[in-house]
Amino acid sequence: MGRDGKPTRDKIMIESKALIFENGFSGTSIDQILQRTGITKGAFFYHFKTKRALAKALIQESAKEDILHMNEALEKTKHLQGDPLERLLQFIQEFIDMMSGLSEPFNCLYASYTYEPSQFDQKTLQYISESMLTWRGTMEQLLMEVLKEYNAKTEIDIQSMADHTVVVFEGAFVVSKALKGKDLTADHLKHLKNYFQLLFIKKT
Amino acid sequence: MGRDGKPTRDKIMIESKALIFENGFSGTSIDQILQRTGITKGAFFYHFKTKRALAKALIQESAKEDILHMNEALEKTKHLQGDPLERLLQFIQEFIDMMSGLSEPFNCLYASYTYEPSQFDQKTLQYISESMLTWRGTMEQLLMEVLKEYNAKTEIDIQSMADHTVVVFEGAFVVSKALKGKDLTADHLKHLKNYFQLLFIKKT
DNA sequence: TTTATTAAACCAACTAGTCTGTTTGAATTA
DNA sequence: TAATTCAAACAGACTAGTTGGTTTAATAAA
Q: How many other CB atoms are there within 10 angstroms of residue A42's CB atom?
């Protein structure tokens, strides 16, 4: 057995993710990655067959972590199943806690890739849409549970309401980055939570 | 009077905007623009000194139109000043009407540029942040008027609530594009409108 | 006759990716 | 224990093509 390549591979992924956040994927050259990591071209192409393969590995990892976080929050709120609205609100609260206090805008590759789609394989882009659809499914379920015991004060479309969570996440990422301040995601998730809180009223 | 260059310049701007939406800015080459417009390199560099100058012109135009639309909606709802909440809701409704029925995702350059910031001059990026801050200012004013006659059911931060509108816009653009369906912005603006509607209650 | 446009050659810097070889270190053998 | 083996991990020069941008001279419209 030769030496351990994992630290190198990890370094490539961490630094290239940061570079993509600054320059976009097309705007990030392999030479830049080499400079930032201090490794050589041989090492890079040993770990990733092509630049696109790196892109795929990065988004795969991101999506995996994203859904993992989602499921963790889902698990953490399982004890609140008795009151489905309380559970929904606490589910959002988990992410408010997670995102609050971030000094820098959250590095979201979803939006980054989405705005230069031709640079990636279809499968790479699918990780993004699948991830969003998983969020949609989870939120739909949580909302359906709520609607068993609560009425909505306004007529709502469940799917669009489910998607609204991802919309708030992604929008907050974009605005945080554009304004170059700290991450605002927690603040905007609070508005989403408020919305849910105000919208539903217990059935009599 | 020499010959009129406006049609050429317009064609460059229209086609390059479409290309940036597909490939990102870095991913869009000048040769691609030439191919798509059918003009030559000489003509391109006659109108734009550099590729970055094109980027600047594009975002300048987008921002100008954006703020113009905002002010038009503001003007259209002036007759509702008597009831500031009614006005705020109608202000949002104007954009719901504007965005509903779009078959393709709305081509928003703000997010596109934001995710490869190193490719642009600071002034170019400033058009984006200034535009967002103009939105913030307008929304803050509308909300302040509302708070004179209404109480908020939940304690809210006006600035973050003002920003929330831009967040919903940008988030809806990202999700629409990522899911490759039709534009979902109108749907999500409806949620924003619902939120405002539910949040405020007339002072006694 | 000023302004806009074509056409094509040209450049230096940069691009992703390849190639050939060298180093590493745990397991195998002596 | 010390020498040997071997595949995984890495080094770095090299290539073929692309990039944004320039130049120049002829030409087409207002």
A: 8
